[in-house]
Amino acid sequence: EPALSSCSAVPSARKRGQQRPGKRPQAGRCSGREGDRPEKHRREEAAEGGALPALEDAYLSILEGLGENPARQGLLQTPRRAAKAMQFLTKGYQEAIEDILNDAIFDEDHNEMVIVKDIDMFSLCEHHLVPFFGKVEIFILLTFSPPRIVEIFSRRLQVQERLTRQIALAITEALKPAGVAVIVEASHMCMVMRGVQKMNSRTVTSTMLGVLREDPKTREEFLTLIKN
Prior knowledge:
GTP Cyclohydrolase I, domain 2, GTP-binding, GTP cyclohydrolase 1
């Protein structure tokens, strides 16, 4: 088999099995372009606060566990790319509701029901680490701009029921509205790609707080709006 690069930091699964226990290779240190990649990786790791190498090493183990050769051309940079993708998909852990709401709240006396529909949502199932995605609808008695709240909580390992309630609670705690309702409709890839394997299956969850939960008249208005 021809050499793919002069770097040997990412061995094949067969060669790695010959190493002593505890002598773990560093992931993603080699590339077809010698010289510039290691320094670039070090800069990336410093910028990411040191979390990137651990994730990268974990993806290297996954490839080896699948019986793949991480040193082959198509997989040379896969552990690093996958690690950076996972950091992006879970960036909600690093963000705070207070930071994104500072510029989103308007000082207005608005007592009508506001509906924000079709907020795209992408998250990762915490049980299988595969995606679930769909739409979020937010009903609230206050004017504000909520999509970033959805992103903060969806960019984490989640279950849909908890995600729905977290969005509603965050809005309630930060904005103190008279009432809020959140509806999430999503497709779960752990049900589409595995398990029941039903392509068109969708899960709907909802949370109502404040007057939307406690006042029958307001709740009736809310349910009428949903039907329409």
